[in-house]
């Protein structure tokens, strides 16, 4: 996969993207809960630093979608999905955004979480190589060196990727590296390939003019949702109106991001000042947003609405998580208890809007 700058939308395409955006937001359905005159403070954790993959949440903040529902949301930067999931489950944050299968894993380990809405429908994890490496398929990795971070999300699924891709993993030299050194090792050609989250590996390299290829695990039968909005089951049961408002504001932010990408970048930069420090920093956010969009423009939200969970996918993800990530003997949780579609799926984009988004983000969708 190669990544490039987001293509500027033509005036006509901009009209299609924006036209009906209000209609899409108004299609939320159901009564909106607006809390009392004093805004209700909400602590919300991200899985990582502010970047393109979570830009829609900063858009929700900047555009006042939560504020108009009576919420004062504080977005806190995280230190990985696993830590974010633990913090949410332990109640240190009211809500948060983290890897969906990580939430499933934490629930299986006894720290209950409930997904209220999906933001990304592809975990976007895989193997990254330099474009001039000649490595295009899994089998090309045989005889090569692959660097990974053992604690990284993709690591447990590498054997399944190898199996599905016809790769003899015994013929690959595997080395463990710190996440901060992973890309440096690839750029300096100390290793031939690295594994990890596409949204973390590729944007900075693309912004620096480095061309890469990606083998996404989703291309090899490993279907995992990316990030979802989580809370504790107890909060969902005791305060559904609050959960509804949090999901509503977030999905409005997602709708805006998909229908007005340029406006979303401006909103993100207004909230995250360091993103506007240099053209390179903003370019990195653009690439990350493009990759996030490719994971959000999928069949499930087009058929079920933004945030909608496909029960079959959740069930499949639960099986994969227990088999490849959880400790031996871990009891599998009931997939139906892991999520709710009570608030998700209310905002729907029109077919024209989906097509315009596909056209706009074509460099990433075709990657």
Q: Would you write up a description of this structure?
A:
The protein is an alpha/beta fold and 367 residues long. It is built from 16 helices and ten strands. The strands form two sheets. A five-stranded mixed sheet has the order 2-1-3-10-4, with helices on both faces. It is globular and about 65 Å long. The termini are close together. The N terminus is likely disordered.
Helix-strand layout with pairing:
Elements lengths: L10 H8 L2 H6 L13 E6 L9 H8 L8 E6 L4 H9 L5 E5 H9 L5 E5 L6 E6 L14 E4 L9 H8 L7 E4 L2 H9 L5 E5 H10 L4 E5 L10 E5 L1 H6 L1 H20 L1 H11 L7 H18 L2 H6 L6 H14 L26 H10 L1 H4 L2
Parallel strand pairs: 1-2, 1-3, 6-7, 6-8
Antiparallel strand pairs: 3-10, 4-10, 5-8, 5-9
Protein name: SsuA/THI5-like domain-containing protein
InterPro entries: NMT1/THI5 (IPR027939), SsuA/THI5 (IPR015168), TAT_signal (IPR006311)
Q: Write down how many β-strands occur, each being a DSSP E stretch of 2 or more residues.
A: 10
Task: Provide the CATH architecture of the largest domain.
Answer: 3-Layer(aba) Sandwich
* Spatial shape: globular
Low-confidence stretches: 1-31
Percent helix, as a range, is 40-55%
Number of continuous helical runs? 16
The main sheet comes to: 5 strands, mixed
Strand order in the sheet with the most strands: 2-1-3-10-4
Going by CATH, the homologous superfamily of the largest domain would be Periplasmic binding protein-like II
Q: What is the H/E order?
A: HHEHEHEHEEEHEHEHEEHHHHHHHH
CATH third-level topology of the largest domain: D-Maltodextrin-Binding Protein, domain 2
Indicate the radius of gyration in whole angstroms: 20 Å
Could you tell me how far the N terminus lies from the C terminus, measured between alpha carbons in angstroms? Answer: 5 Å
CATH top level class name of the largest domain: Alpha Beta
Mean pLDDT: 89
The total tally of domains equals: 2
- The SS-based structural class is alpha/beta
Protein name: SsuA/THI5-like domain-containing protein
Pfam families: NMT1 (PF09084)
Organism: Pigmentiphaga soli
Domain SsuA/THI5-like: 55-264
